[in-house]
Request: fold
Amino acid sequence: MSHRSRASGVKGRRFSDRGSATVWSVGAIAVLCVVFGIGLGLGQAVVTRHRAAAAADLAALAAADHWAEGGAAACARADRVARAQRTRLVRCAVVGDTSDVTAASGRGPFTAKARARAGPARPAGPAESIPSFAPAG
Reply:
C-alpha cells in the first residue's frame, strides 16, 4: 500500500490547520470593514451637526439684520440663507430686534437640528457691569 492511498483513507487521515490563515484574514478584514463603517457613520453625523449649527447661526444673524422689515421678511431672509447652506429652516421667530431660529440638516438617521439666537448687543446694566478695583491703602 502506498503512502497516497493510506493518506486518502478515513482512518489514516490527519487533520491540519492548513488554510486557517485565510479564515483568520477574512475575519480580520470583516472586522476592519465594520469598524471603518462605524467611523464613517460617526463622521457623517458630526459633519451634519456642524452644518446645522453653522446654518442656524447664519440664519439668525440674517433675520436679526432685517428685523426692521418685519418678522415675515426677516424669516424669509433667514430661510434663503439656510437653503444656501443646504439646510432647512425649521422655526423662525422675531421678537423685537432679536431673532430665534432652528435649522435642520441631513436626512433619516443623520438628521441634526440646531438653534441660534441673534440680536443687538445690550449695554451692560448695573448687575452686569465689571467691578473696578482700587489699590488698598
Observations:
- Residues 71 and 95 are 8 Å apart (CA to CA).
- The two ends are 114 Å apart (CA to CA).
- Residues 25-118 form a domain with the Pantoate--beta-alanine Ligase; Chain: A,domain 2 fold (CATH 3.30.1300).
